[in-house]
């Protein structure tokens, strides 16, 4: 629907966007009621569709009685099948509206005279027939005047039915259920569709009558309003043929009335109806095409974008936003109309839209206006043009409203603001690429100046740049004159700069595009399906992540409980032994008294050798390493010719001493990738050395702030407390009460953090506590300190409160990192495709390093993956990464999507093991301190507030510890598997290199595709050179258009299929994870019961031991 138009996910620049699945026309203003009511064949409610055959038969008899028919006339009607009876009921019970829905007629004449015939009055509930009993069923209003449809064959009926569907302006989705109807139902629909309404005096029913009435010079006031209302209904309900007959003549008549209404405040309702008529007229391909072709239609419509008439402006803004997105001329026409209106009103062209954004009491207006802004800014292909439009809108006033809009809680408004900011960031990032990826705030004049100066510095453009700046100094120093100067200069610069790309800012004389986009419109339905797929993938991914987290938590609980069970079983066994030993000792002491001392035990084996220093690994035996390599000697069996290449500088072979029997590099088989053509391509392309570049970073120093002197406190502490108290703005006694009551609602975590940070030392607090008698003479920071000094254990109390308040946040920060890192470790270890790619790269390495000290390397460090793009070919155009992507694409296409098996590596690259360890250790210390404080507090009310929290927090902490231990174990296993030191090569570095490799690989694949396309275009151009220049231009243009359309269509289909596969895979993963989670929860329940049982037995044995003592 036009009113619910969204600009979500339109990331791509210059792509055609649509607001409806109906190609080439705007969506209808009516809701879709479902079933056949949207086509005019059933009443608005679905009462007849939901009735059984028995109910239909009863209502059919009631209808016959209501029609006052004789039994002779009822008999042939009763023989009709159920579909025909249902259709008759639909038409008989159709509720007449103020305006005839089928004909859209306006009854201007008076009511009929009272002297009606009985037969006419009995048919009040249905459309009147203009014919007198021609025979058969036409007398009841169910058959056309002639019996043409009765005599037609099924084939003819099918053809006419298709023509009817086209005439009704239906989409393929709505045509599909109608085509499934049986032949009797189709015949009944054709009869009703072709039924000619009766002409009565005073009615407007034909397009010509509406045009004549709209051209009437005496048309004004209420009469104009009623005619426009009737016309809107007719344009909405009649078929396309009716609109075509209304044509350009009718469109001009509407526009002329709209111009008159815009100049008259008393015609606001009529102006609104004119806009609604234009909206209904555009709701077909014919109408939309005529609106776009019309030279002044959108300009006149833009006149209604007037903040003084918010109702009409809202509809006009929605239409302009939708038209703006329809290629090829929609964007240009809308801008042209808005520009001309701005010139007519002598104001900034976007000012009315900005005023609409400022209407805080009209949320719909704000949402529609920001939609129009997004449509205008994001549609152009050219980056410079997009930046120009955005800067103009921001300068007109959006920059002052943006913060205000962001503070509103309306969901749709926030979605559109997010789209606006996303496009802005993407454009700024694209612009920064022109300046060597310099990070510049383009809204800051100083940074823009510095960037431009650095660009022209020490170039032939520098004198001209200086001359421009010098001429700026000549501008007269008058407030209003200076502004006009700069405005004129800005317009000149805009025309000069943008005209370089063929974009003249004078939109009335600009033809930006000349592309036939009709073939692209058919892909809009496919795009809609893709968007639905994307939403489904996001939802399934979130479910999968939640299930994965719950599964790992359950596994951690299982691990913790199993350890506890082992510990309790050990204690239980020891206690049983001690109890039995005590009883046996008492019995045998009497018997074995008098025996001599026990014999000396036999000496055991010699003591073990002293342990190695911390961090030092056992020294491997040379024979053991040789044995491991000898068992897997496929590396030694390969022999390659020497090749000079820069790869030797980047490659770092693995340490042979770290190789173990189960290491990846020991089992890696690169021999399966050996081939003569691959060997020749490697040697041919990579035989030169590359030069690396160094990056320098600059540092800035910030000046320190001065303090303030106080009596007891030092100036810095006093200043910090003053700033803190100024931000809190709560009486000191209230702050003290909140702390004593541990009121978490009135004390925020940020406030408590500042109190802990800036409260004075205990000595200073004690000193100030003794000055309570001189309270009024102290400065505010010292008065606050005196008030707080009466709280015992102030800092520990604040720290406990802060820990409790931030504990959920801390857990939510740590747990997702643990889940992602654990899953990433499992994915890397189990990915077969990634392993094959590593073997292929190893083969490249050994081929290129043949004859060097790194020849026949058993493996390489994972960090080398991120350096593949630094190894360039001898012509410098491609890299080893491009070569790898090309080989995989040609010979091993099943490895192309290896990154799908490493979904969590990107998140794991952001996880720091040091931070995890630090957070968990800090959490342990804080929990321990809190338990100590609780014991010291005893049974005080303050202590009771933390009892339940400590129990819950301890359980969650144990789960986190178990998950971290699992992660640590998995990463150490990865270190052994890939032969690296996990203490030196950290977790984030390892997964960061894999992430970089994935990104570089995907970019290399795209680069290769672009290269092939370029080569194909060059080849085609050379072949076309043999023909004449005229034929060459025509064929090249045709070929490019066909290639673009075919590529777009194939890309959409491929993307759609890929999304279907992704949803299936994500669903299977989610179900597997859910099953594992349920199994883990069952294990947890079993182990908890066992722990309780063991604890009970342990308590009983301890009691028995006490009794024995």
UniProtKB/TrEMBL annotation:
Gene3D superfamilies: 1.20.58.630, 6.10.30.30, Formin, diaphanous GTPase-binding domain (1.10.20.40), Formin, FH2 domain (1.20.58.2220), Formin, FH3 diaphanous domain (1.10.238.150), Leucine-rich Repeat Variant (1.25.10.10). Keywords: Coiled coil. Residues 149-504 form the GBD/FH3 domain. Residues 1-53, 101-141, 594-615 are annotated as: Disordered. Residues 598-615 have a biased composition (Pro residues). Residues 551-585, 913-940, 1077-1104 form a coiled coil. It holds the Pfam family FH2. Residues 637-1027 form the FH2 domain. Belongs to the formin homology family. Diaphanous subfamily. PANTHER family: PROTEIN DIAPHANOUS. This is Uncharacterized protein. It comes from Sinanodonta woodiana.
């Amino acid at each position: 629907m036009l009113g619910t138009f969204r600009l979500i996910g339109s990331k791509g620049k210059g792509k055609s966007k649509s607001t409806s699945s109906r190609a080439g026309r705007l969506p209808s203003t009516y809701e879709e009621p479902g079933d056949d009511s949207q086509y005019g064949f059933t009443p608005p409610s679905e009462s007849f569709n939901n009735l059984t055959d028995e109910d239909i038969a009863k209502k059919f008899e009631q209808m016959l009685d209501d029609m006052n028919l004789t039994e002779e006339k009822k008999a042939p009607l009763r023989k009709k099948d159920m579909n025909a009876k249902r259709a008759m009921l639909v038409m008989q019970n159709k509720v007449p509206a103020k305006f005839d829905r089928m004909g859209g007629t306006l009854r201007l004449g008076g009511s009929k005279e009272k002297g009606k015939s009985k037969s006419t009055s009995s048919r009040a509930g249905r459309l009147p027939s203009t014919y007198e009993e021609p025979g058969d069923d036409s007398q009841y209003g169910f058959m056309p005047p002639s019996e043409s449809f009765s005599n037609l064959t099924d084939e003819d009926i099918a053809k006419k039915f298709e023509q009817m569907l086209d005439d009704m302006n239906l989409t393929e989705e709505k045509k599909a259920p109608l085509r499934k109807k049986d032949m009797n139902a189709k015949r009944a629909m054709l009869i009703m569709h072709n039924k000619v309404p009766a002409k009565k005096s005073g009615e407007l029913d034909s397009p010509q009558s509406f045009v004549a009435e709209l051209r009437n010079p005496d048309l004004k006031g209420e009469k104009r309003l009623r005619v426009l209302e009737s016309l809107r209904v007719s344009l909405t309900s009649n078929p396309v043929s009716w609109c075509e007959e209304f044509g350009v003549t009718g469109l001009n008549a509407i526009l002329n009335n709209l111009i008159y209404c815009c100049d008259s405040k008393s015609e606001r309702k009529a102006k609104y109806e004119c806009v609604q008529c234009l909206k209904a007229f555009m709701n077909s391909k014919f109408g939309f095409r005529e609106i776009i072709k019309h030279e002044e239609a959108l300009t006149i419509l833009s006149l209604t974008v007037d903040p003084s008439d918010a109702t009409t402006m809202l509809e006009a803004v929605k239409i302009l936003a939708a038209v703006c997105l329809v290629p090829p001329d929609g964007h240009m026409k809308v801008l042209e109309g808005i520009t001309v209106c701005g010139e007519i009103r002598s104001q900034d062209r976007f000012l009315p839209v900005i005023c609409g954004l400022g209407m805080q009491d009209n949320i719909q207006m704000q949402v529609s206006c920001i939609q129009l802004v997004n449509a205008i800014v994001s549609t152009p292909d050219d980056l410079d043009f997009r930046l120009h439009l955005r800067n103009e809108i921001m300068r007109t006033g959006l920059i002052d409203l943006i913060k205000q809009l962001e503070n509103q809680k309306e969901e749709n408004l926030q979605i559109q603001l997010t789209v606006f900011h996303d496009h802005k960031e993407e454009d700024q990032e694209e612009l920064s690429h022109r300046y060597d990826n310099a990070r510049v705030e383009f809204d800051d004049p100083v940074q823009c100046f510095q960037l431009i100066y650095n660009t022209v510095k020490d170039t032939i453009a520098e004198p001209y740049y200086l001359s421009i700046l010098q001429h700026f100094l000549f501008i007269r120093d008058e407030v209003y004159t200076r502004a006009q100067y700069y405005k004129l200069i800005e317009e000149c610069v805009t025309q000069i700069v943008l005209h370089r790309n063929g974009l003249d800012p004078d939109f009335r004389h600009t033809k930006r595009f000349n592309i036939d986009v009709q073939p692209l419109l058919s892909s809009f339905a496919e795009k809609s399906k893709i968007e639905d797929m994307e939403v489904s993938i996001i939802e399934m991914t979130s479910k999968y992540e939640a299930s994965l987290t719950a599964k790992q938590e359950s596994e951690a609980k299982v691990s913790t409980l199993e350890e506890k069970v082992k510990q309790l079983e050990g204690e239980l066994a020891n206690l049983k032994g001690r109890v039995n030993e005590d009883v046996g000792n008492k019995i045998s002491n009497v018997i074995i008294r008098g025996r001599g001392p026990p014999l000396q035990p036999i000496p055991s084996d010699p003591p073990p050798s002293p342990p190695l220093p911390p961090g030092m690994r056992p020294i491997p035996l040379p024979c053991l390493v040789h044995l491991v390599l000898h068992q897997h000697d496929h590396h030694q069996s390969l022999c390659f010719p020497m090749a000079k290449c820069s790869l030797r500088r980047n490659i770092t072979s693995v340490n042979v001493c770290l190789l173990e029997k189960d290491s990846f590099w020991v089992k890696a088989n690169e021999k399966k990738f050996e081939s003569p053509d691959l060997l020749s391509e490697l040697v041919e392309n990579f035989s030169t050395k590359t030069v690396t570049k160094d990056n320098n970073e600059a540092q800035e120093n910030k000046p320190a702030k001065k303090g303030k002197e106080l009596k007891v406190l030092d100036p810095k502490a006093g200043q910090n407390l003053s700033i803190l108290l100024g931000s809190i703005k709560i009486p000191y006694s209230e702050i003290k009460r909140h702390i004593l009551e541990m009121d978490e609602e009135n004390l925020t975590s940020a406030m408590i953090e500042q109190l802990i940070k800036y409260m004075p030392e205990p000595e200073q607090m004690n000193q100030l506590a003794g000055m309570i008698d001189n309270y009024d003479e102290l400065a505010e920071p010292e008065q606050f300190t005196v008030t707080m000094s009466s709280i015992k254990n102030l800092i520990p109390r604040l720290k406990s409160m802060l820990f409790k308040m931030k504990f959920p946040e801390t857990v939510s920060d740590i747990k997702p990192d643990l889940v992602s890192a654990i899953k990433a470790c499992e994915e890397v270890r189990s990915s077969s495709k990634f392993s094959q790619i590593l073997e292929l790269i190893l083969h490249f390495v050994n081929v290129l390093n043949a004859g060097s000290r790194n020849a026949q390397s058993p493996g390489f460090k994972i960090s080398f993956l991120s350096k593949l793009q630094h190894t360039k070919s001898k012509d410098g155009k491609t890299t080893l990464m491009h070569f790898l992507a090309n080989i995989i694409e040609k010979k091993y296409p099943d490895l192309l999507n290896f990154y799908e098996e490493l979904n969590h590596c990107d998140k794991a690259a952001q996880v720091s093991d040091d931070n995890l360890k630090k957070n968990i250790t800090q959490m342990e210390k804080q929990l321990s301190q809190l338990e100590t404080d609780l014991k010291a507090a005893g049974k005080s009310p303050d202590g009771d507030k933390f009892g339940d929290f400590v129990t819950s927090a301890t359980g969650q902490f144990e789960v986190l510890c178990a998950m971290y231990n699992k992660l640590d174990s998995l990463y150490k296993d990865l270190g052994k598997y890939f032969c690296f030191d996990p203490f030196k090569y950290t977790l984030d570095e390892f997964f960061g290199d894999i992430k970089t490799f994935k990104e570089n690989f995907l970019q290399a694949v795209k680069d290769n595709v672009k290269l092939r396309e370029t080569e194909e275009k060059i080849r085609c151009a050379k072949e076309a050179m043999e023909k004449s220049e005229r034929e060459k231009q025509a064929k090249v243009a045709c070929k490019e258009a066909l290639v673009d359309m075919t590529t777009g269509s194939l890309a959409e289909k491929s993307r759609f299929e890929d999304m279907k596969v992704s949803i299936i895979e994500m669903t299977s993963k989610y179900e597997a994870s859910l099953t594992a989670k349920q199994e883990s929860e069952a294990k947890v329940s079993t182990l908890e019961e066992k722990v309780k049982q063991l604890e009970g037995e342990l308590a009983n044995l301890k009691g028995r031991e006490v009794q024995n003592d």
